[in-house]
Amino acid sequence: MSSSRPDSLADPFATAPNTPLNTNETLEPPRASFLSPTPETVGSPRDSYAQAPENSSPLVPEVEKRNNENYEQGSTASSLPKKRLLIRRPLFWLIAFAILAVVVLAVVLPVYFVVIKPHNSNYNGTSGGGTSGGGSGSGNPAPPGVSTTGGNGSLITAVDGTKFTYLNSFGGIWVDNPNDPFNNDAYPNSWTPPLNASWTWGVNKINGVNLGGLFVLEPFITPALYQKYSGAVDEWTLSTLMAADTASGGLDQLETHYNTFITEQDIAEIAGAGLNWIRLPIPFWAIEKWDFEPFLEKVCWPYIIRVFQWARKYGIRVNLDLHTIPGSQNGYNHSGKLGSINFLNGVMGLANAQRALDYIRIITEFISQPEWVNVVPVFSIINEALVSTIGTDQMTTFYLLAHDTIRNITGYGEGHGPYIAIHDGFLGTAAWADFLQGSDRIILDTHPYFAFDGSSNGQPIATGTGLSAGGIWPQQACNAWGPGMNTSQTAFGVTIAGEFSDGYNQCGLYLMGVGNTDSYGDSCSLFLDSSQWNATMKAGYYEFTLASMDALQNWFFWTWKIGNSSTTNTVQSPAWSYQLGLQQGWIPTDPRAAVGTCAALGAAGPQFDGTYAAYQTGGPGAGTIVPSSVSSYSQYPPTPINGLTAGAIQSLLPTYTSTSAVPTLPPPTFSPSPSPSVSAGSGWFDSGDTGLAPTEVQGCTYPNAWDAVSSAMPTALCPSTAIATTVATPLTTVVTSLTTVATPLSSLTVKKRYQNDREA
């Protein structure tokens, strides 16, 4: 099904976000302590699907059951003399009870206050997201005979009937109660707080993986699909060719991929590998697509929800990554279409930015609901915008607008919606120092790769074992990435590596794009086939992995899984698969093994002490952006827009009108139905957000939204009767449509917002 919006692509620029809440209230960030990280027996995640004889690990050990049974059995009376024994005399019992009471007070109370009470506090604290989403685990008992929790060795039965054994030697537990589907009690390991407890930035560490290639199909991650369709180089061309292949099922093949590429077993194995987060790239067409776009719209959304629920079951937090943007934010094959950048760049740059902002708004509305806020604590709003083309000031202006739009929905301060992650745009972390000081919970995301640095990177990695393994690459990772990550934690705030890999060179099937045979030619043959790797090669990759993890501190490996090539039936980009590295021994089975690697290599420098400014984690001052940033970046749209022909008049740039119904993301349905007291939400958190969605102006003609850089500019407004209008925009910004003038809020009359007619 496709949008009813017209398929030719200028009308008043009108944004529809809310006027944010004004609050002077200062919020003290809640803090909670958790189980101290104790070394566990490191277990391999290999063969994690072995069958187990029982449905779940027993919650009470059998020996304890036997002891309890013996305790409950009455003793047989024996023949006793008529004379009363000492134990039958009242005075004896008075003395015995007094002694017993003293023992109980002396032993039980210290145990309670030292052990039990702190443990309960640790595992029943509220999270940064506020409530536990209607799933506290109380009040909704499980159906009879249904196991709702388990740990290492428990047998998991998936919805499709598949069974596998959950192997987790790190103390993690899963929780899955059909009567309480939003229960947040699970945790992946003993050192990670459960979903219903606070994540403390600077104390807790992200050890995560990306689920790349699941909902945004990249050639090197899902090569078989691209090998099937000659000429497919990105998801645009793949979708076009696939749709024409009705004999193979057309675009339904994509739904088959969504259903099978990542399964519940993968999420269980991620938890069992000592990991605690996933980064989930999704496309904007999970919400909708417009008529001129070939993508499969909306179909992946239920599968995205399914991943959320699997993550909840195993206690995994989700960094939700909007990986594609209308018009493309970087021109890469994973942005939707390979080619030019048409987001905030070129003739359709502003129009595409309108769509992008609305999709950010719609996703924020969904994940800010109490059912999801603890599972999705981070929202990466635009993946890898190419700032060198778009412009730093232009992107900063958009980020301020997006920040205010999001915080107007969620409210300000810790516990009010997700952290907002922005990418460094390949400028490096230092370029973003002091960014929007006073903003509310913005994370800087960087993607360090040696493979794409333009160098040949031919130095060997198979050089020895132990600290001598890996050649120059382990120390290179420590020196190139560690200092910048430590500095950015103070100069910017929370900083993460949303992507990194073991690929230090450009070798990998389709790694540099379909048709770029340099990355999968004869010179790369060794790196395409991990079955040829000897122990020294694997030791080199292992040491490089440890050094990378240690240097980056909070990281997501790209990616969990690489699909097989259809020609070899093997993974031909092995250095990019965390799962394969675990199975074959060049990825550590316990990520904590990485700590201290850089110091051991002599590459240690000043370390971040874990303390952030209060506003950076939603404490006092969050949302009070410094006046210099407001004055510099609050005027939207930004000027100039790059990618225009010489002499172009920016006031004539095509834009959309916000008069369309909003495609709200639907909540899940459950089978069997949970307890009547359980609410799945409506898909929309802020009932006061009634703005409409952008659509084309009827009767106006637009350039190609995905290929409008340096296109001819309109010579007149469309429609010709258009007049400048004023609209409400977040916090500090109000835009005058169809003009180059942006005027502060105080001097404009705000247009009354239309009542939103959201689609069910």
Automatic annotation (TrEMBL):
Q: Show the segment(s) annotated as Disordered.
A: 1-79, 127-152
Q: Where are the transmembrane segments?
A: 91-115
**Keywords associated with the record:** Cell wall biogenesis/degradation, Glycoprotein, Glycosidase, Hydrolase, Membrane, Transmembrane, Transmembrane helix
Compositionally biased spans, kind Polar residues: 16-26, 70-79
The molecular function terms in GO held by this entry are: glucan exo-1,3-beta-glucosidase activity
Q: Which InterPro entries does this entry report, sorted A to Z?
A: GH (IPR017853), Glycosyl_hydrolase_5 (IPR050386)
Q: What class of enzyme is it?
A: hydrolase
Under catalytic activity, the entry for this protein gives: Successive hydrolysis of beta-D-glucose units from the non-reducing ends of (1->3)-beta-D-glucans, releasing alpha-glucose
Give the range the annotation lists for the signal sequence. Answer: none
Q: Which domain of life is it from?
A: Eukaryota
Which residue ranges have biased composition labelled Gly residues? 127-138
Q: Name one GO cellular component term.
A: cell surface
Q: Which family does it belong to?
A: Belongs to the glycosyl hydrolase 5 (cellulase A) family.
Protein's name in the database: glucan 1,3-beta-glucosidase
Which organism is the protein's source?
Answer: Rhizopogon vesiculosus
